Amino acid sequence: MLALKNLSTGFPKSNLLLHENINLDLSPGRLILLIGPNGIGKSVLLKTLCGLQPTKAGNVLVNQSDIHQTPAERRASLTSILLATPPSIDQMSVYDVVVSGRQRFLNGWRNPSTDDQKAVVDAMQKTGITPVANANFGSLSDGVKQKVMLARCLAQDSAVILLDEPLAFLDYPSRIHFLELLKVLAKSESKIIVYSSHDLQLSLNYCDHVLALTQQQWQFFQSPSSVNIPDIFPNP
């Protein structure tokens, strides 16, 4: 369960408020699309949900644990995030990148156990990256890197997976495959998956719910068919 209680987002140090009083209760097994104009605060919201960005007010609860009051090692079991730009990692194999998602299980960076190895192999199979398991992560295209980072999130085995523009570097067929994968993973793994995207034509066909951000306002749509795009993206 992901619960947002009177959540306000922004930048506390500069006193900049982006959105306030967000109240939502999201259940496992759901794929939620986050939409809104460029610069509206989607990335800030995603980072706030995983604890990388402080709240201005309110709480983010995952399975009744407050993300912002939870130690980092425990937080890893609650949320994972895939950022918009793949990380710059050289001289590290795809397998090792995915293994790093198991860090909370690897006390003192011990050798991966049988369970760790199984989780990594399973995550790579589900995301279709097994053929590049031994490849240098830095040599991959950005699209394949995003799939590797999704596999890392799966290996981390967090209750909530957050993705910031995961379709940005994928071609059209790969976008369809990626969305189908997210939909299946949300159901089969009983995860809450929240992802932002500007590819509305595709995304609205796959998501279960939509969270829309506009200028200091937010709306939640139980059904994607209820979204009126011109209300969210008015003409300039």
Q: Keywords for this structure?
A:
alpha/beta; six-stranded mixed sheet; 8 helices; 236 residues; globular
Structure description:
By secondary structure, the protein is an alpha/beta fold. It contains eight helices and ten strands. The strands form two sheets. The chain has a six-stranded mixed sheet, sandwiched between helices. Helix 4 (114-127) crosses helix 5. The longest helix has 17 residues, at 172-188.
Strand order of the largest sheet: 6-7-8-3-9-10
Mean pLDDT: 91
The amount of beta strand, in percent, is 25-35%
Radius of gyration: 18 Å
Number of strands: 10
**Morphology call:** globular
Q: What is the N-to-C order of secondary-structure elements (H for helix, E for strand)? A: EEEHEEHEHHHEHEHEEH
Q: How much helicity do the residues have? A: 25-40%
Number of helices: 8
As residue ranges, the low-confidence spans are: none
Largest sheet: 6 strands, mixed
